[in-house]
Specification:
Strand content: 15-25%
Strand order of the largest sheet: 14-13-27-24-23-15-22-21-16-20-17
Number of strands: 27
CATH superfamily of the largest domain: P-loop containing nucleotide triphosphate hydrolases
Helix content: 40-55%
Structural class: alpha+beta
Distance between the termini: 26 Å
Largest sheet: 11 strands, mixed
Organism: Yaniella flava
Shape: rod-shaped
CATH architecture of the largest domain: 3-Layer(aba) Sandwich
Protein name: TraD/TraG TraM recognition site domain-containing protein
Radius of gyration: 42 Å
Keywords: Membrane, Transmembrane, Transmembrane helix
Number of helices: 32
InterPro entries: P-loop_NTPase
Number of domains: 4
């Protein structure tokens, strides 16, 4: 915030208030918070609450001293309103230069006993915004009550209403305030000023509106008295002859002094001039100190007295209400009498609705973990390291900032790998990092954050054959049949739900053992049992197991199918003759599995295998990733060596774009394979202080066609040291069971979502007091987060997320 104009030793800090979503404070909560905020501000220095009405807006300005701003009094008042506080530099010119200003002055005390408790905290703003003409304002100048003023007022009120009756001027929260109105015409200002008292619940004082003019009445009185004194001196001197020199001199000195004081007052002490001067410095004039002498109230009483003749008689002393205990333009009440005028929820003219500013709890603020941003008050907000062990899910519409937040977590993880803190629950050096980048744009961010901490990250770019590939079908040293079963299961997971079932699954389970045997034993380089044309189909260094599977599913000619099977059978016989019974059994078992297909006619076989053939054709078209001449590694190596790997299944650096179907398929295959590797490698990693962190900016790309893998990762993965940090756009992208699962993550956060349904779904899961409206109105790069500190759930907190790209100059 840029400080406002100086005011003596104080500086003005200005707050405006935006309507915010979330639970509104009830009247009792409003009273408590508003009283504390305004009373605290007044105790620290000049304080003004000004409501400004234009043709299209109703804006509240809360001006406080610099010390009150440091004590967060403006933010406290925002919490009383259930609103968001925004700091601004100064009051608008329309307020400072209002041509006509009036103030309220005391006329008489009434006998109302209305209180503010139970009243709608937004009603006054609602009525005031409708009553105010365009380009007008209503302001309250506040100061702390003096002890003698409180004492006088108590006597004054008790006399009127009785000592035992509660009154808003007798509480400890009461303040002294003055009321001013500015408008474009005198009639508008006076009319509005007359309406204001009727809107202040609990304000039981009759007032009148008095214009703030350029004439200082007291100065005018001095000046008039000076003129009279001069005239009297002249008349006296002429009437009585020449007055004695000393007396004449005294007369002229008094005359000159009165004229000088009056003239200076008229020139420099004009009330309106002072008003503008105060407004330019940021505040309305502070209510003046009460008169030194005030007559106390008394009840009616009688007394026996003696007259001049010595006779006794009863004398009646009439009741006297007492003098008003303050200056006529000052009033003593709780702030809740006038504070509702500033409630932005009272008028749609107060502007668009934004999200509530939810503060961080002391437990969360003090937790160890990566700082992801700060609250609107500037308090840093971490994701606790204890919570990161139980996974993180971030929702938000495209462009909201999910990817940048995940890159910030990646950066923290890289820093821990290079310079372990040794703190409890921190990942440390024995940490494997795997990031799935689904769009491609975040690759540079991940790699740059790794470089920032001198960590080495391996890039696996699906479209760039110069980078290594992670084999999605490497399940370790398994028998060929078990290997094929894993491959089929992976395909069932990665393709859409129901895409590989029944006949398709049966065909794939028959085909893949034979395809694996054909690829493993390189049958194209054996005695090929087909013609030259079919041999050319498979005699290439780029042929993969999926090409053989595609051929066996009638993706080539019937002659190609026959050639593969005949070559396998011939090869099996040769291994048997050579005494390699293990190879013979492996190949002949695969050939036997193909018997049902081999017995069909080519036409029937082609029809029977059409559905799975189309699926395998997608894999074949992904030869850019699975080509045999590409450097290849596997997840088992990545895990054992604690590598940091960025897997790009989105667009490549040379602007090539991977097909969406292929990107999702590859992601699903890789995550299925990752689970298998974790199960083999990472047993008891949690107990050993080792971990594997998986990050992905689009969770639905990894979830595949069923929930099995991701559910296992959430429910069983922690014992293996698995930590997941995911993001996705909308909960509807996940199945019902998967949604329930991810909402069980220990940290769930959301950026804004413009649609009603997803925002309502997320709001319901986050907390009872979060609404879909609040999520829809989150400011850009702000998120609402619910997390845990040492297994204790924390209330939602609004976070202005740090732009982690700035750390690496992206």
């Amino acid at each position: 915030m840029t400080p406002g104009h100086s005011l003596g030793m104080n500086q003005a800090a200005f707050y405006t208030f935006q309507r915010a979503t979330g639970v509104r404070p009830n009247p009792q909560e409003f009273a408590t918070r508003a009283n504390a905020a305004i009373n605290g501000a007044a105790s620290s220095g000049p304080t003004s609450l000004i409501m400004h009405r234009t043709a299209g807006a109703y804006t509240t300005y809360f001006a406080v001293s610099d010390s009150a701003a440091k004590s967060k009094k403006g933010l406290e008042l925002a919490q009383a309103y259930g609103a968001r506080a925004k700091e601004v530099d100064e009051l608008p010119e329309d307020v400072i230069n209002a041509p006509h200003i009036v103030k309220l002055v005391f006329r008489s005390a009434e006998h109302g006993i209305d209180t503010q408790y139970g009243a709608d905290p937004a009603e006054m703003a609602r009525g005031l915004s409708q009553a105010m003409p365009d380009d007008s304002w209503v302001g309250f100048s506040v100061r702390r009550v003096k002890r003698f003023e409180a004492k006088r007022n108590r006597k004054y009120v008790d006399h009127r209403m009785g000592a035992n009756l509660r009154h808003l001027s007798k509480t400890k929260a009461a303040v002294v305030f003055s009321v001013y109105v500015g408008a474009q015409s005198r009639s508008e200002a006076i009319s509005l000023a007359r309406d204001v008292p009727e809107m202040m619940t609990g304000f039981d004082v009759a007032t009148r509106a008095v214009s703030v003019t350029h004439i200082n009445k007291r100065a005018a009185g001095y000046f008039g008295t000076g003129v009279a004194a001069g005239a009297l001196t002249m008349v006296a001197n002429a009437t009585f002859g020449n007055l004695p020199e000393p007396l004449l001199r005294i007369g002229w000195i008094i005359t000159g002094a009165l004229l000088l004081v009056g003239a200076l007052g008229l020139i420099f002490g004009a009330p309106k001039r002072k008003m503008y001067s105060h407004l330019r410095r940021g505040f309305l004039p502070e209510p003046k100190r009460s008169p030194s002498v005030v007559r106390s109230p008394r009840k009616e009483r009688t007394k026996w007295v003696r007259d001049s003749d010595g006779d006794q008689r009863e004398k009646v002393y009439k009741e006297f209400s007492g003098d008003y205990p303050l200056r006529k333009d000052a009033f003593l009440f709780e702030p809740t009498v006038f504070a509702p005028a500033g409630n932005p929820h009272g008028s749609t003219l107060a502007g668009a609705i934004t999200a509530s500013d939810r503060e961080v709890t002391p437990e969360l603020a003090q937790a160890n973990g990566p700082i992801i941003g700060k609250t609107v008050h500037g308090a840093p907000v971490p994701i606790p390291a204890s919570s990161l062990r139980f996974s993180t899910m971030i929702f938000g519409e495209p462009g909201s900032g999910k990817s940048v937040t995940l890159q910030g977590l990646w950066s923290w993880l890289c820093k821990e790998r290079v310079n372990p803190s040794g703190l409890r629950h921190y990942p440390g050096a024995d940490s494997t990092l795997i990031a799935f980048e689904t769009k491609g744009g975040g690759v540079e961010g991940y790699l740059s954050h790794s470089a920032l901490h001198n960590d080495k990250a391996i890039l696996v770019d699906a479209l760039d054959y110069r980078t290594p590939a992670i084999d999605p079908f490497d399940y370790g040293d398994l028998p060929m049949r078990e290997q094929s079963e894993r491959m089929v299961s992976a395909l069932q997971y990665a393709f859409e739900d129901g895409a590989i079932m029944g006949r398709s699954a049966e065909s794939l389970r028959a085909v893949y053992p034979a395809a694996l045997a054909a690829e493993h034993y390189q049958i194209a380089y054996e005695d090929w049992m087909g013609d030259e044309e079919t041999h050319r189909m498979f005699a290439s260094e780029h042929i993969t197991v999926h090409d053989y599977a595609h051929g066996l599913l009638m993706g080539k000619t019937p002659e190609a199918f026959d050639a593969i099977m005949a070559t396998l059978s011939t090869l099996a016989d040769r291994y048997k003759r050579d005494g390699d019974l293990e190879a013979y059994d492996e190949i002949i078992e695969a050939v036997d599995d193909m018997s049902p297909l081999m017995q069909m006619t080519p036409s029937a076989r082609r029809s029977f295998t059409e559905a799975p053939r189309n699926k395998i054709d997608v894999l074949r078209r992904m030869n850019y990733y699975m080509r045999p001449d590409r450097p290849t590694t596997n997840f088992e190596t990545v895990l054992r060596k604690h590598h940091a790997v960025v897997i790009n299944v989105g667009s490549s650096g040379d602007d090539r774009v991977i097909d969406d179907e292929q990107s999702k398929l590859l992601s699903g295959l890789l995550v299925y394979n990752l689970r298998s590797a974790i199960q083999r490698v990472c047993m008891n990693w949690e107990d050993q202080g080792r971990s594997v962190s998986v990050l992905c900016d689009e969770f639905s790309m990894l979830a595949g066609s069923n929930d099995d893998v991701m559910m296992w990762m959430r429910d069983q993965g922690r014992a293996y040291g698995l930590r997941m940090h995911f993001a996705t756009q909308f909960p509807a992208q996940l199945s019902h069971n998967m949604r329930e699962n991810v909402f069980g993550y220990h940290t769930v956060a959301t950026y804004t979502m413009g649609s009603n349904t997803p925002s309502e779904v997320v709001a319901k899961e986050l907390s009872d007091d979060v609404t879909g409206e609040e999520i829809r109105n989150l400011a850009k790069y702000h998120l609402l987060m619910v997390t845990n500190v040492e297994d204790e759930i924390q209330p939602p907190v609004t976070v202005e997320v740090h732009n982690f790209n700035e750390d690496v100059m992206l």
